[in-house]
Structures are given as structure tokens and as C-alpha cells.
Amino acid sequence: MGTHGEREIAACVIFVLASITDGIDGYIARRRGQITTMGMLLDPLADKLMVAAAYIALVQYNPHVVPAWIAVLVIGREFLVSGLRSIAASEGFTIEASDLGKLKTVVQIVSVVAAILDHRWITWNFHYFILSVDLVARMSIWFMVAVSIISATDYFVGFWKKIDHSANRRRQRRSFVLSRRKKQTVDSLSNTPTSH
Predict the structure, then answer these.
(1) 115 FRET partner, CA 20 to 30 A, in 23, 35, 67, 188?
(2) Domain that residue 87 falls in
(3) pLDDT value at residue 78
(4) DSSP letters of 171-183?
């Protein structure tokens, strides 16, 4: 594995710890019912900023594994989902994190760690077998891209169904209100005494 690489190991440990503590914090808040509006706003934003910072840094740190377009795609996907969630909130419903979204988060952590390690090591020799760090990094990055696109599509479909359902409900309510007003108008006209 080599004698050096302390910086890469430290960067991986810090990133993994930050990701884990963020997940634990959200879990504890949900269990204790300590979810605040500020927390609902800042927690996803902090997640997005951490992911964005990691991939922007990797574009410069290890560009042969993380080209700029991958960072743009990942960051764009994060803010697209945030936008959908804020529109959903303004319409009075929520889009829960899907299993695909959770898988995407795990894959992102693995891909960032693998890309950092790939900067220092191409392979790890364990005597019994040789692990290609470069291959693991490239495969995890591509898998992360695929999961990001699929989960974003899943979010969009879920959002579209709910917004469509919400629009239909609003339309039905409006037509019900209009038909009631129409009926009241007809009733009031029919009850009006006619003068001879």
C-alpha cells in the first residue's frame, strides 16, 4: 500500500465522519421529534454543500477520475431535487427521500473516498490478491452517475404525480365552488318575487 498517503487517508476519514454524523443527527432529530423548520431548510442545504465541495475539489484533485462534467451533473441533480422539494412544500405536500435517494448518498460517499485514494494509489497489494484502486474509483463514479440520474428521474415522477393530483383537486374544488355559487344565484333568482 505504500508508506505515505496520510493526507488522503485523513481526507477520507473526515469526509466519512462528516457524512455519518450528518445522518445520525437527522435520525436523532426525527426520533425525538425535534424537527424544526430551520433544520428542514439547513440540513439538506448542508448536505448539498458538502457534496458540491467534495466533487468540485475532486475535479482539481483527481481530474482523470472526476472530470468537470460529472461534478456539474451531480451538483445540478442535488439542486434540482431541492427545487422540486421547495415547490412541493409551497403546494402543501412533501417528497420523501426514496430508497434510490438513500442508495445514491451511500454511493456518493464510496465514490468520493475511492477517488481520493486513487490520487495516491493505483493498486493495493494484499499478497493474496491485488486490488485495483483505480478500477474501483472509476466504477464507483460511473455507478454514482447512473444512480444519481435514476433517482432524480424517480423524484421528478413522484413530484409530477403529486403536483398533478394537487392540481386536479384544486380544479374540482373550484368547479364545486362555482357550481354552488351558480346554484345559489339560480335559487335566489327563483325566490325573487316578480312585480305585476
Answers:
(1) 23
(2) 6-187
(3) 85
(4) HHHHHHHHHHHHH
> Can you tell me which residue has the cell 473516498?
113
- For residues 146 and 168, the answer to whether their CB atoms sit within 8 Å is no
Distance CA 159, CA 156 (A): 5
192: in domain:
no
Residue 45 sits at φ, ψ, to 5 deg, of -65, -40
Which residues, in sequence order, are bridge partners of residue 131?
Answer: 124
CATH at 177 = 1.20.120.1760
92's CB contacts (< 8 A; 6+ apart) are: 166
The pLDDT value recorded for residue 2 is 44
Integer Cα distance of 162 and 72 in angstroms: 28
State the 10-residue block means of pLDDT for the chain, 196 residues long: 70 85 68 62 72 89 91 89 79 71 86 90 78 89 92 85 69 59 58 54
C-alpha cell at 119: 490520487
**C-alpha angle with apex 191: 186 to 196, nearest 5 degrees?**
115
Query: What's the confidence (pLDDT) of residue 1?
Result: 45
- Is the residue at 70 inside a domain? yes
| Residue 194 is assigned to a structural domain of this protein | no
Tally the domains of the chain: 1
| pTM score | 0.70
The SS3 assignment for 124 reads strand
Beta bridge partners of 132: 123
pLDDT the model gives residue 104: 86
Which amino acid makes up residue 41?
L
